[in-house]
Amino acid sequence: MEFTFVSGNLGLDLAGTVGARRSRRIDLLAGPADLARWTVDARLLDTAPEVTAAGLADARRLREAIYGLATAARTAAPYAPGDLDVLNRAAEPAPPAVRLTPDGLVRTGDLAAALAAAARAAADLLGGPQTALVRECEADPCTRLFVDASHRRTRRWCDMRGCGNRAKAAAFRARHA
């Protein structure tokens, strides 16, 4: 399965590794190898880190905490203290090291560093003015959260190529049926 990075925030992209949360929940981080691949696909690390079962469990806890905090922010509900603790603990380690070389950018680190980068991105989003721009995709059954950076703040779908295209095609078929 392909990972998508359309949320406008790395933390929300991690939260987006679960699809259809309210119906047929699809977990894209089914095993340690999936999480290792996500760290590379997210451009956090150049080489997949070692991921243990405990590391996968930590990533899943962080993912759910980010989703809970972003959903609370979106609905103006109070943050769950447990979610704040998970996010803040995950943000503590140093993020991946970045070096510019004659061959380009090199990103190194372990799983904790990659998760720290995702946690810090979520904390920056949820602790700043863009919190008000967090939206949930309107396509059914998608539950991806994203930052609405559109000019008029009217973005409805997480991704126009996927959810938006399907919704517009369905509306077109309904009008012409």
Verbal overview:
InterPro entries: ABATE (IPR010852), ABATE_dom_sf (IPR023286), Znf_CGNR (IPR021005). By secondary structure, this protein is mainly alpha-helical. The chain has a single domain, classed as Orthogonal Bundle (Jann2411-like fold). 46% of the residues lie in helices and 11% in strands. Helix 3 crosses helix 4 and helix 3 (53-75) packs parallel to helix 5. The radius of gyration is 17 Å and the shape is globular. The mean pLDDT is 92.
Question: Main traits of this protein?
Answer:
177 residues; 6 helices; 6 strands; ABATE_dom_sf; Znf_CGNR; ABATE domain-containing protein
Helix content: 40-55%
Largest sheet: number of strands, sense, barrel closure:
2 strands, antiparallel
- Class computed from helices, strands and strand pairing: mainly alpha
CATH superfamily: Jann2411-like domain
Strand composition percent: 5-15%
CATH T-level topology? Jann2411-like fold
Per DSSP E runs of 2 or more residues, the count of β-strands stands at: 6
Protein name: ABATE domain-containing protein
Pfam families: ABATE (PF07336), zf-CGNR (PF11706)
Organism: Actinomadura parmotrematis
Task: Give a short overview.
This protein has helices at 10-15, 32-41, 53-75, 81-91, 111-126, 160-175; strands at 18-19, 26-27, 97-101, 104-108, 134-136, 145-147. The chain is mainly α.
Compile the SSE list and pairings.
Blueprint: H1 10-15, E1 18-19, E2 26-27, H2 32-41, H3 53-75, H4 81-91, E3 97-101, E4 104-108, H5 111-126, E5 134-136, E6 145-147, H6 160-175
Antiparallel strand pairs: 1-2, 3-4, 5-6
Helix pairs in contact: 3-4, 3-5, 4-5
